[in-house]
Amino acid sequence: MAAESVPPPAVTRRPLAWSTPLTYALALAVAAVSIAPVIYVIVGGFRTTPQIIADPAGLPDPWVWDNYVRVLTQSDFWKQAFNSAVIALGTTAGVVVLGVCAAFVLARYTFRGREGLYTFFTLGLLFPSGAAILPLYLMLRDLTLINSYYAVILPQIAFSLPLTIVILRPFLSAVPRELEDAAAIDGAGRLGFLWRIMLPLSRPALVTVGVLAFVASWNAFLLPLLVLGDADLHTLPLGVQNFSSQYTSDTAGILAFTSLAMLPALLFFTFAEKQIVGGLQGAVKG
Amino acid sequence: MTSTNPILSPAGGADAPSAGLRPSRRSSVRAAQTRRKWYEIVGLTLPAVIVYVMFVLVPMGFAVYYSLFRWRGIGPPTDYVGFDNYVLAFQDPIFLDALRNNAIIVVGSLVVQGPIALAVALLLNRRFRGRAVFRLIVFVPYVLAEVTAGIMWKLLLTDNGTVDALMRSLGLGSLVRAWLADLDIVIWTMLFVLTWKYVGFAIILLLAGLSNVPPELTEAAAIDGASWWQTQRHVMLPLLGPTIRIWMFLSMIGSLQAFEVIWVTSVPAVRSLGASATMATYMVDNGFFARLWGYGNAVAVILFVISFVAALLFQRFLLRRDIDGAVTGRVN
């Protein structure tokens, strides 16, 4: 899309209409690369393993439901989905509650050491959970938390806090001072102000950090891999990995299991996409 | 690190308005207010501080301590070996391979994802019907769990699998390789999967940055007779600078930690030969599964120090400009 003629300024108030076919062609190409493998996996779940081996790139012929039925009825899918849900919801609740409390103080209180405390939290952005995973495991072992939901939830909350505070603080400090004064005149303390005015006003930001924490937790693999040795506590990512290494020859089954495991995240994201983008927008803008 | 992170901005604080009381009582009321204020500050921040210190900072401190011992993880560590574990790591060719692979992933991600993401973001920033759907689709790989994406690509890239069949049907059969088994190729296959997985994140960030560009600027450019392309090049791109640098920063840190996709997609045998190992997979393989806890923790410290230094250098030399920048520096 190199050179093009310049339309007269008067017409360009809503520009960019000229190249729609080219735009669509490019957009379609990008979309195809993004989603074709995913569609392949979902459709592949409707084939049989012999079909897949005979023609890896073919379509189901005939369509079989057996793989999906098998995964949903015979595997540990539901148990693992439940574990994933408990851990993701626990993480999300913890991140939002702890994050909003800390961010509120950092945004609305003036006190000595405030910027120091903020820097202290942002330092966490440089402590990736990956690097800390071995000592984290040892510590959780000493606390006898291994093989419990807490072993995943607590570290996930801790590692999500820095980004949460970074996203929430500008939101909370953007609420006009006048509202706080008005609340004070009406007899609300600062906690009342937080509860009755700040939380409702900052709902979009709360949803954003909630969604980010939920998706990160739902997809997490390394931490559960180390701390959830007990198969009864396995989450979906562990389940997918186990299923695929346990039934290597059952390609169709793996495809079906993988599809079902990614479905919740996809649905969730479809509903929450605006929130994620909106929240990141706030973070980028600062 | 100082508080000079560009995505952070100083926040406006607010003190309670002083009540119009008589001077004699004002000071005691003030004191009570101050005390109450500090109770609130401590009460509200303490839970977060405790969880954060306990699970983020303390483990890293322990890693340094454990790394000085030869230790199988049973009982307290007693066999003090000084810095031997670090020396061992840098003498192990597999670890050096892992370092090289991390470097390939860091540089490769930046060089490949950056231009793609920029092009797609500019494309999806245009107004056209169905844009929302395209945006959603482009983000799909980013939302998938790393494990799911890894297993998916493992199946697609397997010998005589779908990718091979597709290439043969397109007449590219001579280019087919053992994507996951050829020791010289596997790291590039990993880079491909990582690109597919994470380019959506770069696109999200850039789209967010683009939507912050005031429409007045593009309109002014249009009035001055700039073509769409010129507007992107001379107006959008410079304004995107800060966002691009933030993405580079996050991408770099992420690439240094690369674990899941490689762990799941590449065969353990290939990984253990170093062909696809990264620092993180090497650390988990040796520390957790081989139970060389002291050694594993030394690798953890190396990984952490490399990430930390890279982050500091990046902040120092590339992100600092953004704090002074008029566009990102503004406070909400």
From TrEMBL, chain A:
InterPro entries: MetI-like, MetI-like_sf
Any GO BP: transmembrane transport
Domain ABC transmembrane type-1 span(s) in chain numbering: 81-272
Alphabetically ordered keywords of this record: Cell membrane, Membrane, Transmembrane, Transmembrane helix, Transport
Membrane-topology descriptor: Multi-pass membrane protein
Compartments reported by the entry: Cell membrane
Transmembrane segments: 22-43, 85-106, 118-137, 149-168, 205-228, 252-272
Gene Ontology CC annotations of this record: plasma membrane
Stated family: Belongs to the binding-protein-dependent transport system permease family.
Protein name (database record): Carbohydrate ABC transporter membrane protein 2, CUT1 family
Automatic annotation (TrEMBL), chain B:
Residue stretches of biased makeup (Low complexity): 9-20
Gene Ontology CC terms: plasma membrane
Entry coiled-coil feature ranges: none
Domain ABC transmembrane type-1: 99-314
CDD domains documented for this protein: TM_PBP2
InterPro entries to which the protein is assigned, alphabetical: ABC_transporter_permease, MetI-like, MetI-like_sf
Transmembrane portions of the chain: 41-68, 103-124, 136-156, 185-208, 246-264, 292-314
Gene Ontology process terms (BP): transmembrane transport
Pfam hit, one: BPD_transp_1
Protein name per the record: Carbohydrate ABC transporter membrane protein 1, CUT1 family
SUPFAM superfamilies: MetI-like
Membrane topology reported for the UniProt record: Multi-pass membrane protein
Species: Micromonospora avicenniae
Family: Belongs to the binding-protein-dependent transport system permease family.
Keywords: Cell membrane, Membrane, Transmembrane, Transmembrane helix, Transport
